[in-house]
Amino acid sequence: MAAADIAVRLRGLTRSFGAVTAVHPIDLDIPRGDFLAILGPSGCGKTTLLRMMGGFIEPSGGCIEVNDADITHLGPEHRPINMVFQGYGLFPHMNARQNVGYGLRLKRIERAAIAKRVSEAMALVRLEGYEDHMPAQLSGGQQQRVALARALVMEPQVLLLDEPLAALDLKLRQAMQEELRRIHRAIGGTFVFVTHDQGEALALANRIAVMKDGRIEQLGAPEDIYLRPQTHFVASFIGEANLLKGRRSGGMIETACGLTLADTGPDGEIALVVRPESLRRLAPAERAEIEAGGRVEEIVFLGAHVRYVLALSSGERLRVQDPVEQPRAALGDVMRVGWSRAAQRIIAA
Q1: How far does Cα 288 stand from its chain's mean position?
Q2: Which of 72, 155, 186, 313 has its CA 20 to 30 A from that of 232?
Q3: Which CATH number fits domain 3-233: 3.40.1790.10, 3.40.50.300, 1.20.120.790, 3.40.50.2000?
Q4: pTM to 2 decimal places
Q5: HEC letters along the chain
Q6: Which CATH class is domain 241-348?
Q7: What is the mean pLDDT of each run of 10 residues along the chain (349 residues)?
């Protein structure tokens, strides 16, 4: 990718706190117009990485470039980057309009220009008519929109979002996801957001960086991360996945639950990954490319589908997602399920 297409470039970026390395050296290019999610469990280093990009934490090593300019040692106020924090950070004594225009006033921009840009930013986040409301008079979602407008009004080249929707309830979080997608399309900016919510990352981002223990385990499009996980951690962390233990030897795989299939690759311990929605119940005479069977140990009704948990002969559990309109199996029944080779993934154990 040409240098002109890269908005943010990280090279060897690392951060240690005493003897603990929170972020191991990371190289990462973020293209212009990207909507990148940094996803991982608590303590994986994702927020530390974001705060280094924003200038709120000094790196222990490496560099940060925005549009080919080294900003590694610049303060937050001198970076072409703005950040939206999880806690909103609104000034309680200022109304929405004053909160949104605060950064522009600090830059001593002409009053008429401030009014125009604030009005445009408020319209962008669909808060027309709320300009005079104080933060205490706004809902959580409205406060989040004010915080977003305050960042966008500064026209940053890169917008960082630190778990921006974590404090919202499910319905409001889904509505704000739609708003963020719309705003990103409207302004064509570069967004980088941190989340521990896999569903949120899949719904919002066009690329996902999955982090574990201060390192990026896998970087790619949501479809690649979900359907083609490269490591055991990514497979188990993103959505639901069945991981069946096995061993590859001489081009053949034998799993602990009794499956045998040809597969090229290095000899050694492997895991066969298949998503619950890729499995289908088999009728007595029906055949599938790959089959397994077990006793129904758990049945959970989830609205659009029913989840069965099968106990396999190996002691492993296999989760199956079945359409709700199908005849219901009972606890203790023996169930056969099948899937295609295209639906599975073989990874190193």
Answers
A1: 33
A2: 313
A3: 3.40.50.300
A4: 0.87
A5: CCHHHEEEEEEEEEEEECCEEEEEEEEEEEECCCEEEEECCCCCCHHHHHHHHHCCCCCCEEEEEECCEECCCCCHHHCCEEEECCCCCCCCCCCHHHHHHHHHHHCCCCHHHHHHHHHHHHHHCCCCCCCCCCHHHCCHHHHHHHHHHHHHCCCCCEEEEECCCCCCCHHHHHHHHHHHHHHHHHHCCEEEEEECCHHHHHHHCCEEEEEECCEEEEEECHHHHHHCCCCHHHHHHCCCCEEEEEEEECCEEEECCCCEEECCCCCEEEEEEECHHHCEECCCCCCCCEEEEEEEEEEEECCCEEEEEEECCCCCEEEEEEECCCCCCCCCCEEEEEECHHHEEEEEC
A6: mainly beta
A7: 81 95 97 95 94 95 95 92 82 93 89 91 88 91 87 89 80 82 87 91 94 96 93 91 94 93 92 94 92 95 93 95 90 94 92
